[in-house]
Amino acid sequence: MIKAIGDAFSDIRSGFRLRRVWLALAREDIDDQHRRTRLGPLWLLVNYLAFASIFIFLFHRGDSSQESYAAYAATGLLVWLFISEILTQANTLFLREENFIKGTTLPISVYVLRLTMQSVIRAAYAVAGCAVILLLSGAVPTPVWLFSALALLLILVAAPATIIIFAFLGAYFPDSQFIVTNVMRLGMFLTPVFWVYSGQGGFRMAFYHWNPFTYFLEIFRIPITDNTVPTQSFLICGTVVLTLWLLALVLLGRYRKQVVFVL
Amino acid sequence: MVSINVENVGLVYRLRQKISLARKTPAVQHTGGRVSEAGGRKTVIALEDLSFSLEAGDRLGLVGSNGAGKTTLLKVLYGIYEPTMGKVEMKGRVDALFNISLGFRKEATGRRNIVLRGLINGWSLDQINDRMDAIIEFSELGDFIDLPFKTYSQGMAARLAFSVATSLEPEILLMDEWIGAGDARFQEKAKRRMEEIAEKAGIIVLASHNHGLLKRTCNKILELDKGRLKAFLPVDSWEETG
Fold this sequence. Notes:
The structure holds 2 protein chains of 2 kinds. Chain A is an all-alpha fold. Chain A has 12 helices and no strands. Chain A is globular. The model of chain A has no long low-confidence stretch (mean pLDDT 91). Chain B has a domain of 127 residues: P-loop containing nucleotide triphosphate hydrolases (Rossmann fold, 3-Layer(aba) Sandwich). Chain B is built from 7 helices and 10 strands. In chain B, helix 2 packs across helix 3. The model of chain B has no long low-confidence stretch (mean pLDDT 85). At the A-B interface, helix 2 and helix 6 of A face helix 2 of B.
């Protein structure tokens, strides 16, 4: 296992040395998706605003237990969209990069960082949209908001590890892409993205407490909506991130040169 | 000093049964070597006990029928496949001309594609800028270089791919078939470019079915048969037996 982790670090070091490659490719990927459109990547901002506004309008009336529901939903949606994109895109990553993996000696981490960068660029537009909603909802920034910035950093650190795990899963178990897509569709409603948990029992309690996504949403959301630091959620997320990285490093070290044979 | 040293190299990989909800089928269609089955596990012996050495000035022609392991050996030398047995020592910068159109983006301009392809090849921005004018000039694309790649004819696209791919000064060059591009006139120019690269490179390893080309270009021949070394000899001796 030590050797696998050492090999994984060496792959990641090479990936960082080739940062110009994944930075350039990620930029091209985003540009290509919007090249013919008038608004270009601004569509990412419009998409987020439209999505968030519809849900805020629909759910605010039915569930107004949260004082600032707009901020609650906007922050939750921002984190959820990022996580959801990472998981679904990562699953087919090696299949999409098959020609590169079979034709070049680029380290696997280049593909992982390319997808991370793409998701970060998309999320940056959503962050701008989230800031607009927070501004309109009358939220006033406080020093506690710095913990939300720390939360974003933690989520960002988790992204490459998650991508590595789900990319290997998708390569060795191709059916998983359909399972992950469906779980994420369902997960949006089983995670407190739009609904508010207010201490009731039953299914909602189970979906709230036993759902790891809840804690990643909370570390970003609670400093903004409640002006407090969710220490327990930070601890849970920190542990999850460390576990993800450990698993990712072992997988990367052990299978980075094997994956070419299963594509 | 540029050299290649291959010692008892073998490449064996498991033909994985992909974990799937569908009916069981082999995960990959293996392309060469031999398939063996033991204890319900299928493995592909792609290369077995290969040993040979090359020094500066050597031009090695790889021959063998389809599935003999030529491309696999090239990919082992390049580092895409890690040998499961033995060791490979490559001294010198290795460049490969396998899939020259890999990575070209249809929405990006020709100029941007040169940058992207250069980055993928591991060139620095300075190296790309230094080579840019020469690549554009060789490709004969003129003003088209600043138009999207998707507006190019097949011939233009092939000329650009060839120009970028061959704009290198390799110490060790690996080729899966001799490459060419464009119409008859450009083919002639491409041929001269390939000969120049071949002259400059310290070592060339070229896999091809074109025996005439190998006899003209190479000084040594390595013949593979189902992943095993069948012959490694000077091209003159091969001419006698081949």
